[in-house]
Amino acid sequence: MRARNCVGLAFATTVLILTALANFAMADAVAPTAFADGLTGHDIYSKIVENRFRSFSQESTLISADRAGRTQESRFDMRWQDFRDENGEALRGILSKTLVKYSHPFDIRHSGYLIQANKGRSNDQFIYYPSRRRVVRVNLRNQSIYGTDFSFEDVIPREAEDFAYRRLADATVDTVPVFVIELYPKESTDSEYSKIEVKVDKERFVILRSRYWDQAEVEIKRFSAETAQVQQFEGVWVTMKSKMKNLLLESYTELIITKVVANPDFASDTFDLGRLESH
């Protein structure tokens, strides 16, 4: 199994950005394609964004396996809050904040990350090293979640503004009708991906399948959600079990959400840098 260095390899759930001008030429605004329902790729992804809480906390388990079948388990808690106002405008330029703390295995327990998603500029990202007892500003691009096949980009909720779009022909996943769209990450998102293809449940607006291409335009990962493991919490659909396959390393990681708390009222200092150091 590839090395899973403590916190240094750690984070980044995950889907997620530098893109070429040729990619933007394929966006809805530049090359629209007519569909009977009148929806563009941007319209569809906006509905995915709408299918989420104003805030949430969740506990998750990651089970990874390499090509030899050796496995490793890690666990983390995530807190997320939308900082947009009632009109959908970023509050003081902030779209959302995410706090992640590891609880298992022991050697990375209490380490954590804080990410602030900003409108029109790169995110602010910080990591806490318990061994050093200090918080450091970092760039989590290409970093995995404790050496798993998920990156931080894959599991943190994205914004509709993060991408240019191209809608493809509709399809089905396990008999479920889906929209198919290509996402071209904008430069400000500082993504590891050049393109992401997603298949979106037409009724519940959750992503059931994804394919990821790196900056060399090589397909590197594939995501699949278990369609029977999509649950509703206070009107929001959540994928409770999913898998990410790394096509280059021939490894995979299962992400299992074990607990969800919908729309909690977080304390005003929940996403302060000082909270990274608290145990």
Structure description:
This protein has one domain (21-259): outer membrane lipoprotein receptor (LolB), chain A. It has a 13-stranded antiparallel β-sheet with strand order 6-5-4-3-2-1-15-14-11-10-9-8-7, covered by helices on one side. Strands 12-13 form a two-stranded antiparallel sheet. A hairpin with a 5-residue loop joins β9 and β10. The radius of gyration is 18 Å and the shape is globular. With 279 residues, the chain is mainly β. It has helices at 21-24, 41-50, 152-155; strands at 55-65, 71-82, 94-104, 112-118, 124-129, 134-137, 163-173, 176-185, 193-201, 207-214, 219-225, 230-233, 236-239, 241-246, 251-262. The relative contact order is 0.22. Helix content is 6%, strand content 44%.
Could you say which structural class the secondary elements and strand pairing correspond to?
mainly beta
CATH architecture name: Clam
- CATH class, named Mainly Beta
Approximate helicity band: under 10%
Strand order of the largest sheet: 6-5-4-3-2-1-15-14-11-10-9-8-7
Mean pLDDT across every amino acid position: 86
CATH superfamily: Lipoprotein localisation LolA/LolB/LppX
List low-pLDDT spans: 1-27
Sketch the topology as an H/E string, one letter per element: HHEEEEEEHEEEEEEEEE
Q: Could you please say which CATH topology applies here?
A: outer membrane lipoprotein receptor (LolB), chain A
Straight-line distance between termini? 30 Å
How is the biggest beta sheet arranged?
13 strands, antiparallel
Beta-strand content = 35-45%
Number of distinct helices:
3
Regarding quaternary structure, how should these chains be classified?
single chain
Radius of gyration: 18 Å
